[in-house]
Design brief:
Blueprint lengths: L3 E8 L6 E2 L4 E9 L7 E8 L7 E8 L8 E9 L4 H5 L14 E9 L2 E14 L1 H4 L11 E5 L3 E5 L16 E8 L7 E3 L2
Amino acid sequence: MAACTIANVKVLEGKELSRVDDDIIFEVTLDVAQALAEDMVFRCVYIPYGSGSEKELESIDVGDGPGLRQGLLKFNFESAPPAKTDLEAKSADSQESGPLEVAGLYISALYGGKEFCRVGYYVRYEYDPELQENPPETVDWDHVHRVLSAPRVTKFIIPWDSEDMDVTGAGALRSTISRPSENDDGAEEMLQ
């Protein structure tokens, strides 16, 4: 059993569409099943369209310095948005890709240097509705907004503090999906 799981991640971008330069803010809820000796590291990573590379946007330590107490822990994880140069980059195999192509974004949770959970999103940038049909030839960033898909959660099995764990299963993973919650606050629930 995992000593800690991500119980929920909610994107705090409000009901309005986020502009390209707006920070990306996640509300993260951890469920710590047993006290842990070390802090955790959370990373926000952007993967440009058609690129094999990743761009770390932000990294934070989470804990009581050091360690985490048992129980629920809720915190906001705020990241700067991807640079426009990363959005405008074309993939090596296509001249048609650019800022309005689908890219990737994920939050990675690590303990003891090992990733135990990843919450990923497809991210796309699109014009305001009035420009969707006839977009300008050059990107008009004042009329482009960011849209994130529903999250996709991948969990990895790692050794925790006091486990005499058979590491045969280390690195194994399990995927789950999310669904919109039944309340109207725009939150999404993680399915286990």
